[in-house]
Amino acid sequence: MGELATDKHVRYILSVEKKKDSFESVVMEHLRMNGAYWGLTALDIMGKLDTVDVNEVVSWIMSWGFGGNVGHDPHILYTLSAVQVLALFNKLDVVDVDKVTTYIVSLQNEDGSFSGDIWGEVDTRFSYIAICCVSILHRLDRINVEKAVKYIISCKNMDGGFGCTPGGESHAGQIFCCVGALAITGSLDLVDKDLLGWWLCERQVKSGGLNGRPEKLPDVCYSWWVLSSLIMIDRVHWISKEKLIKFILDCQDTEKGGISDRPDDAVDVFHTYFGVAGLSLLEYPGLKPIDPAYALPVDVVDRIFFSK
Amino acid sequence: MHGRPRKPLKEEDESVLSAKAEKLRLLQSQFLANHQNRIYSKEALDLSAKLLENNPECYTAWNYRKLAVQHNLSQSDSDSIPSLYDQELKLVENALRKNFKSYGAWHHRKWVLSKGHSSIDHEMRLLNGFQKADPRNFHAWNYRRFVTDLMKRSDEDELKYTEEVIGENFSNYSAWHNRSAILSNLLKRKAEGFSHKEKVLQEEYEHVRNAIFTDPDDQSGWFYHLWLIDQTVKNDAPLLVSSWPSHGSTITLNGNGNKCLHGLSLLNSTLSDTTTLPIILYFNQAVEGINSSTVAVKSEILKEDLVWKPLSANNSSTAQVWVVYLKLGDMELQLSKTYSIEITIGHSTGIVSSNGYHYGDPSRIAFELCVQIAHTQPVEGQYRKLTSWKDSDFQKINHFEESNSVASTDHHIPTTSNWCREAIDEEITNYQDLLLDCKIGKLTLARLLTALNLLSPQHDKRKNHTDEVLKLYTELMKLDPTHSLYYKDEHSLVLLQQITSSEESLLPHCHYYKDATETNTGYVCLRLQNLSLSRIGSIKNLLWVQMLDLSHNELRSIEGLEAMQLLSCLNLSHNKLGSFTALGPLRSLKSLRVLNISYNELGSHSIDTRRYLCSSPLAHTEVFAWDRFEILCSGYSATKFWEAFLIFESLNLTDLNITGNAVADENFTSFIVKVLPTLKYLNDGEL
Questions:
Q1: What ipTM did this prediction achieve?
Q2: Domain covering B24-233: architecture
Q3: Which tops the pLDDT comparison, B254 or A286?
Q4: How far B59 CA sits from the closest chain A CA (Å)?
Q5: pTM of the full predicted structure?
Q6: Which of A170, A308, B293, B341 shows the smallest number of beta carbons within 10 Å?
Q7: In this predicted structure, what is the pLDDT of residue B524?
Q8: Which positions fall inside the Prenyltransferase alpha-alpha toroid domain (chain A) (predicted)?
Q9: How far is A51 from chain B (nearest CA, A)?
């Protein structure tokens, strides 16, 4: 097992930003705002956010209209990423808080759920995003929290996990969203922590990696979804941290930088972020700690809530 | 990129890829231009279709298609409407062939269906094809639930479908999951053929047993089986399981003074002055609606309605434990008199569980409060002395005296029907024989035996099972080291259940605390030190405890301790508590005066696993007390000290030991003294 190749990962993330013409970049063009969040948060955790030109990022975000990129339609998925990136740079003061809040409030449905945009796709992912976003902006009181929580609980399954909509199968990504939303709204007492904890800890497979559902392959991104959920419900000691650290480190491209889903697969920014964030949750030395609910560095979250 | 090998591209591949990129980019920019200019011509539509067939994830293009349909609908005659929608369905199919996991494509199809287009046969045919190709695809399952709901396919038919799928290959967690959801529904509404829960569950046990026994390492059936056990043993209705004072007990108060009574204290109490007396109600699950109309407290000493408070870590209005404080000072109690207090619970509706079930059997607790003249005058400011936890300060107890008030368990064990026990018994027989050499076999057996303990009220029988369960968990720790701390936590819970199950089992752990200067006070300390506990439990049996030694264990959390409202001295030294937020339960302990948290891991961890289980501004359960923070600790940084402030600000400690923690440097020590003005001893030194 090697060590975390921090410098190479930093260089990789910075290089992706420049390779706008590659096939991957074009395919993912519509979600560039998510990409910015993944890349920049990973840089911050590795202590290298200062390699980025703040003004350039902020002015790009300010030219955006809630979409995944300039020209694309507004969607709640990208709204949160934009707010998170501005939080990283301590630039939340440039946000038109009322406008963003009004947009999110408009997406809450009668049953407490949230739609992703005006076209009405409902998913507990959007519940998390809405709650996280208005909380960062100190506007949680603008949405109906009680109904939002009730909807999330209606998506709870026999295994203690959560799905996209009522009846939907438990999935680690979805569990992160629901547990995260319940954490931010102080409702973790509604989670069956022992039951869910057992399901989550059984996601660790022989190689040390985590899968997202029973009998599936491990993938570095679940180092985030499963780990953060286990941490929020205080059951992370139920897995082997050492084995998971080894698995993530094995997924590094130690030559060119970046982290992939599984050893020897192609790297991307998404998995690089989740690998680094997972290592941060595992208290890997030299990384800034990340908050399991807001998915931002702890110092950023504490700055939002504990500075006057 | 999921599942794509990391290999350098050959030159020709690279040129192919770059040509592809160029083409896609052109498509995207042309599309965005059309979208912006609201062009919905055939050419524009073809272009968006081509884009989506190449990149189904481009969500804006799906939005554009919907706008185009809406636009073209307004322009066309009713005959051509179906073909407009057909075109969309076809496009979704093509896009799904490219990427089966495209959220946008699936939602587009739902949108078309919600307009009343397509038929159930058509959709089921399509789904069956897709689900054969990938039986675990959760998008397809979600879509299936959407279609069956929209087109009113019966639960019974869908239950049969899960049976078919599982029959083909039992290793299909998605199908087991769906089965549990449908079955819950059918059982809940007592559908025809599903009104006898026992019969249904019996069949399901057999069903899932086949799966687990075929391949014990395959997890598909594991969680379903645990769910069946839960369905068998659980009590939906909330019930009272324990209380303090317990039914039939007598609480003796020491009173001072001749004519006018002052300085009341609980007999053999660690506290010299008791101004309030808690009444604790402990339920089998979290409930809401505990108030003066659902819980009646009758006594001549009460002058006004009591206000019940939920004891929850996050200030929720729902809690498993509720407390009310009797204000003894206001009650004009008289010496040598006995007062009776009667509490009736659940005679009027209003107590509801979080699942919406109403309180089961109404229950009644009656106890007496008597005031006697104190034998000795309490020493002014008893806590001028340091509390020591040395072994030599404790004396073994040979038998309990009535005045020890070691209230053992209240036996509010609900009556269960025979079939539950029979079902669990049968499962035990099956698993005992067949699966004892594998992890899931041992774990399942441990759970079944624990379930049986819950169902059978006999103590001696329980003890035997407990030993077996403890042995199973010990074996599991070795067999499956990756999850060893999960088994250790379970082991701790079972061990505490065993220790606290009767007065007899508690006795070896109870000691008199021999005060260095006062020989005649003898209060009982529960010593659970050195038991290798990683977690605490069975608190419902320990509500009477005032002095508790949990030192030299491996505790990471003290979840549940908030129920021990009488606790005044607590030793948590030499454990693994990793953050101040882990001490959250202490905030509800109004009587706590002495706390030893030396030699833990406070300050050693960058990640706080209790951060969201403790009430705080982060979880929006309380507002940060800036005013108090600035009065008490001006000059200190809130971002650095908020956790410690949150915990200690609400406590009235006189004696705190925090040495042996990474956090306890000089700066922190000076901070803590400011937050705790009541403190007289810090780290064994007088302040």
A1: 0.96
A2: Alpha Horseshoe (1.25)
A3: A286
A4: 8
A5: 0.95
A6: A308
A7: 84
A8: 4-295
A9: 24
